[in-house]
Specification:
Layout (H helix, E strand, L loop, with lengths): L10 E2 L2 E9 L3 E7 L5 E7 L1 H4 L2 H15 L9 E5 L6 E5 L4 E2 H8 L4 H20 L2 E2 L8 E4 L2 E4 L6 E2 L20 H4 L6 H17 L9 H10 L10 H10 L10 H8 L17 H12 L3 E3 L2 E4 L10 E3 L8 E3 L8 E3 L30 E7 L10 E3 L2 E5 L4 E6 L5 E6 L9 E3 L2 E5 L4 E6 L5 E6 L8 E3 L2 E4 L5 E4 L5 E4 L11 E3 L2 E5 L3 E6 L5 E6 L4 E7 L2 E6 L4 E6 L5 E6 L9 E3 L2 E5 L4 E6 L5 E6 L9 E3 L2 E5 L7 E6 L5 E6 L9 E3 L2 E5 L4 E6 L12
Antiparallel strand pairs: 1-2, 2-3, 3-4, 4-6, 5-6, 7-9, 8-11, 9-10, 12-13, 13-16, 14-15, 17-48, 18-19, 19-20, 20-21, 22-23, 23-24, 24-25, 26-27, 27-28, 28-29, 30-31, 31-32, 32-33, 34-35, 35-36, 36-37, 38-39, 39-40, 40-41, 42-43, 43-44, 44-45, 46-47, 47-48
Amino acid sequence: MEALRPDDPRRIGGHRLLGRLGAGGMGQVYLGRSPGGLLLAVKVVHAHLAEDADFRRRFGREAAAARSVGGAFTAPVVDADPGADPPWLATAFLPGLPLDEAVAAHGPLPAPAVFALGAGLAEALVSVHRAGVVHRDLKPANVMLAPDGPRVIDFGIAHATEASAVTRTGHAIGSPGFIAPEQARGERTGPAADVFALGAVLVFAATGTGPYGQGPPHLLVYRAVHEPPRLGAVPDPGLRELAAGCLAPDPGARPTPERLLELLAPLVPEETDLHGLGWLPEPVAAAIARAGAETPVIAAGRTRLYEGGLGAFTRRRVLALGGAGAATALAGAGAAALLWPEDEPAAPAPARPVTGAGAAPPSPKPTGEGKVLWRRFTGDEYLISSPAVAGGAVFVGSEKGDLLAFDARTGRPRWRYSAGARVSSWPAVAGGVVYVGGSDGDVHAVDARTGRVKWRRPAGRTGTNTLVAGGLVFAGNDPVHALGADDGSPRWQSRGGTSYVSHRTAAGGVLYVPRSKSLAALDASTGRVRWEYRMSKGAGGAVVSGGVVYCGDFQGNQVHAIDARTGERRWAYATAGPVTARPQVANGLVFVGDRDSNVFALAAADGTMRWQKQIDGHVQGDPALAGGMLYVSAGVYSDGALYAVEAATGRVVWRFRAAKGTESSPVVAGGIVYFGCKDGYLYALDVRGGPGTVPPSG
C-alpha cells in the first residue's frame, strides 16, 4: 500500500481513506475504513469517465445490479454513489491469492481440488445470475482463493442481463482464452457465457493453461470461435467431460450453473469444507494463510500493516466490484511494519543536498530480496535520467543541468559538471570519457575521472540519449549527427527523416535508427542507408543478437524480428499495448514490455510466447537483464515500482517502490541495480543476496 498523496481525497462518502492500493482503467483504488471500522476497497472513477453521461448511467445501473449479488462465494458491494463527483464504489477488502498466481507458483491443482473449486464457482454464478447480472470476465485472475474459500471477484465489465449486448459490433469485451465464441463475435452475451468461462477456468486450474493454449490475444479469440477446445492435458476423465460441456460452442448446449452444481456435488470429497483451506494443496493453503495474516487491522485510531516477516514476495489482490473493476494491492514481505497516521499520509522524504550533513531521511525498503545499498539525492525534485556505470562510478544527468558522478560501491559523490541545460538523457561512457546531450542541443565530452570538459559541440536537436561506437558519438535526431569521439569533429549527418535518439543501437558497424514509420540501418562510418524496414506507425528500441534485429513498434503494438543483413522480416508478434522499451535477448528468449502492463518472453527463433506476466503499471524505460533476472521499471503514473522478474518463468521475485516512483531505465553492474526515481534520488539496490538492508549513506 502506498501513502496518500497531497492531492488525494481524505474521505469518500463518509469513509476515511488510509492509503493507495492501485489504479486501473476505470479509476484509482484506495484502502478505506467505514465509520464502523470495516476495511474497504474504495474505487474512485477517473475524471474523464465521470464527465461522460452515458458512462454515469451505465455505472449507476451496474453498481445497483452488483449490490444485489449475494452468496457465499462472491464478495459484497458495501456502498456506492454513482451520482457523486466523481462517482465511487466501495467493496469488502479481500486478502488471498488469485488462482492464476497460485497455479503459477505451485502448479496445477489436483482433480479433487478442481472439482471443489468448480462447485464454489458454480454456486457463485447461481447468485450472480439470480441478481440479473452477467459477469462477462470470469478468468483465473478474477477467482480469489481467500482464507474463507474461493470468491468470484471483479465485476468491472459485468452488465445487467437486460443490457448485455456488447457495446459495438465487433468490439467484444472480456479476456481472450476465456471468453465465449458469441462474446468474441460481439453478439448478445447471456449467462451461458459465464458457464463457458467457468469451464475454461477449470481447465486452467487442472493443467496450468487455458483450453486454447497460449499466444497473442487475436489468436486465442480465433481459436475460441473456430477451433474445439484442447482438453487432452486434463488428467481426470470426469473433469474433461464436464469442461467439454461448459465449452460447447452453442450457448444452448451448455449446462446451467444449477445443473453444474448437481454434476459437481458427487465429485467433491464429502469431508471438503469450502469455507476454509483444507480443500487446497498444502503449499497453496499456506500461501493463502500468509496473505490473510498480512491483512491490515485497525488499532488505536491508526492503520497498521502487519507484514509477518515473510521471506518471499507475496501479492495480495483487493476486490473492487461493479463498474470499477479489481484493484491490486501488493503487500510487501519483510520484517518491518509500516505505520501511518490515520489522518495524514506518510510525509515524503525531504530534499537533501548531495554533500549535506545530518541524518538521511528514512529509506524505502524493497519488497523481497533487493536491498538498498545506498541512495543519493541529486539536487532535483525528480530524476528521470537513466544512469551509466563504468570504471567504478555511476553517471547520471539532472533536470537542473548537471552531470553527476558517484562512487558505484558507496554512493559517495565524486564530481558535478554543469552542462548549462537540462540533462535528461542517458550518459554514454567510452575510453574514460562520459558523453551526454543537453536540452540546448550540445554534446558534452567530460573526463570520467575528474569531471572536466574535454570538448563541447552542437549536434542539432538533441537533449536525449547519446551513443558511442567505433570511435564515433551519435547524437541529435533531425538529422542524426556523427561526431569524432576524440575531438567532437563532425563526420556525417543523416538524411531521410526524424529519428528517435532514445533508442539508437549500434552493432557490427551498423547504426540502427528508429524513425517515424520505419527502422533504418545506416552504415556507422558514412551514414549511408543500407536498408529500411517499414512499420505501421513508429519504431521503438532495437537490440541485435545472432544476426537478427528485434524491435518494437510503439504505435502498432508489435515486436518485429528483422534479418540484420537484408532487412527482411523473420517474424512479428502482436502485443497488448505499445512497445516503447528496448527488448532484451538471452538464452533464446526475447523479453519485451508494453504500456499495457505486460511483460512477455518470446522465443527468439519464431516469436512464440513462452510466458506473459502483468505488473501493476506500464513498462517505463528499457528493462535490464542480468543473472537470470529481468529488472522492469513500472511507470510513475501507475504502480511506479521496480520489479525483479525471473527470466525463465516470469515469476515476480520482488518489487521496490520509492516514495514517488521510478521513471528511468535500470542498469545492472556487478550485482547492483542502479536507477533514478521521481523523488530526486539515485538508488543502488544490491541483488547479490546477503544479510539485511544496508542503511543509506545520505
